[in-house]
Write a structure and sequence with these properties.
Elements: H1 2-27, E1 40-45, E2 55-60, E3 71-73, E4 80-83, E5 87-91, E6 97-100, E7 106-107, E8 113-114, E9 122-123, E10 126-127, E11 133-138, E12 143-148, E13 157-161, E14 164-165, E15 172-174, E16 180-182, E17 195-198, E18 200-202, H2 208-245
Antiparallel strand pairs: 1-2, 3-18, 4-17, 5-6, 5-14, 7-8, 9-10, 11-12, 12-13, 15-16
Helix pairs in contact: 1-2
Length: about 250
């Protein structure tokens, strides 16, 4: 009975972890540039003294869905979307560099250009800070041009350029903060081939319908594991009763 109970218990626990991954994906179905986490199960033997006579189920995140989300035209001069492959470089909370597809940019109170999640956008010399302006234009190559306050409508001054990168997808990993980084920890150089679409946003690549169906499936799997544990308990009680009768 202990084998049956152990397998059911570990299966229920790992199903809960898989449900957490799926729920996080569903919660970010409207998050700009969000990349869905993948999840899968596999059987693992329990190693220890003697032969591996036990196995358990393990839920793991084998990677991230790098497919592009749907593009939405917003008309907002601060919204940008990466055309095709590529990433925006941002500064992390610890001062490092990471990459995102979230182009919902805005200016904070200090004039810093940040993403909707508050990560400073990196330019040629670090985080981008913009002086007061009447108009802002973001070029397809990431160039930031402004019309300073009080200047003529035809006067545009280039102030910085958003750092755009395009590392191989297989070299990237996603952190708990939702940003991706190179697995080896190195900094990716700028790629002049990456282009932006101004006035548009890339949405999440999470399918709400698929995530809901997956949630129902995982719930049923969890219930099946609980029923197996109840069955193991009933079988154990029946065995005790037989022993008493003997």
């Amino acid at each position: 009975m202990d084998k049956m109970l152990y397998i059911a218990m570990s299966g229920a626990k790992q199903t809960t972890l898989a449900q957490a991954i799926n729920t996080n994906n569903l919660a970010n179905v409207s998050t700009a540039g969000f990349k869905a986490d993948l999840a899968q199960f596999r059987a693992m033997p329990v190693f220890g003294a003697g032969m591996p006579t036990r196995v358990y189920a393990m839920a793991e995140r084998p990677g991230v869905d790098m497919n592009t989300g749907a593009l939405t035209t917003t008309g907002n001069e601060l919204d940008v979307a990466v055309r095709g492959e590529g990433w925006l470089a941002v500064q992390t909370a610890d001062g490092g560099e990471a990459y995102t597809r979230a182009g919902d940019l805005r200016l904070d109170s200090a004039g810093m250009l940040v993403t909707g999640a508050g990560h400073p956008v990196l330019g040629n010399g670090g985080p981008i800070a913009l002086p007061p302006f009447e108009k802002l234009e973001i070029g397809t190559d990431g160039t930031l041009s402004i019309r300073p306050v009080g200047q003529a409508p035809n006067v545009l001054a280039e102030v910085d350029r958003i750092k755009l990168v395009n590392p191989p997808a297989g070299d990237l990993t996603k952190g708990q903060d939702g940003l991706v980084r190179r697995m080896d920890g190195t900094i990716e150089p700028p790629d002049a081939q990456v282009q932006l679409i101004s006035g548009a946003l890339e949405g999440s690549n999470v399918s709400a319908v698929e995530a809901m169906v997956n949630m129902i499936s995982l719930s049923r799997q969890y219930e099946a594991q609980l029923k197996m544990m109840e069955t193991a308990k009933d079988n154990d009680a029946a065995s005790d009763q037989l022993l008493r009768m003997a």
